[in-house]
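step: validate -> pass
step: tokenize input -> pass
step: predict -> running
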Amino acid sequence: MNLKHDVRAVARQFQICGEIRSAEPYGSGHINDTYCVVFDQAGTCVRYIFQRINHLVFKNPVALMENIARVTRHLGGEFAGAGDASRRSLTLVFARDGNPSYQDAAGNHWRVYLFIEQARTYDAVESPGQAFEAAKAFGLFQKVLANLPAPRLHDTIPDFHHTPKRFLALERAVAADAFNRALLAKPEIEFAQQHESITSVLLDANLPERVTHNDTKFNNVMLDDTTGEGICVIDLDTVMPGLALYDFGDMVRTTTSPAKEDERDLSKVKMQFPMFEALVRGYLSTAGSFLTKEEKQLLAFSGKLITFEIGLRFLTDYLNGDTYFKVHRDGHNLDRCRTQFKLVESIENQEESMNELIESIAFSGPPVTELAEELR
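step: predict -> pass
step: emit ->
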């Protein structure tokens, strides 16, 4: 195995039997290093996911793993009576010392999950049915964790979705211009400044605090290979206290546009209304029972705000020298910012119709009981 890390040495520290047969980099995440590791266990090949937690991003990996251990234990208990229960939630494999993670000699923190078979993630949504299923899964995730016992979860990244502070970070990056990039990003900086007024809307709305995922990209839900059902929510690093609308807003951001997050051809970036409708129906089918009236009324706005916020983050990282998100080409974070801001424009052009749809589904229409098949 010619890998960036000695996965074989890490594996010896976890409660896994058998010999390693293979280990390969896995997934398309920006932050952590992820490997799919295959073990021979009594003649049967069993797969696991190994991840090195990026401690430069997540400053307190121990607290992060305490959150994940509590959340996965709770989800596992709630889904215990369901069919295929072991595939409904991530399952941690604990280290030999009984901890949910292991710290190696270089200071890297590692965790291991059971591999969920016969399901996969998609970097881009392919149908309204898939959008429905993802939103339904994230809504159920929030609903089940609404009764997570005290104490409050740790804030793994304080102020993660605090949009006004994200805007202040951008202003600091513009003023410093440490890498002489502000001129190259002048239109994007001006777009951000023109939208400063929307940054505090959700924080000023006095919405209830929830247990939220906080990174509800479409590719953070695994869809069953056979049924297409949203089977499991993954990537739990940012599960912590937050607003329910942070999660819905990020679903709008990552699911409604046919373009990739770093698409250079901005003509491909647009908010597709059928995808948005599928998200609303899927999400409210599971989360609608506990959301307040005010939360439902701000569903469409949350899509615009979170898309704008992520654009701010990409732009700030670009100006700061690409220190947070992994980049694979010059100007990668600026490309990402541009796609977000173009999507904000598309949402603004359709925001009135989006709000009318939510009014008809959440307040005026019959209970949300649509099946995914109706949206395919």
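step: describe -> The chain has a mean pLDDT of 93.
step: cleanup -> pass
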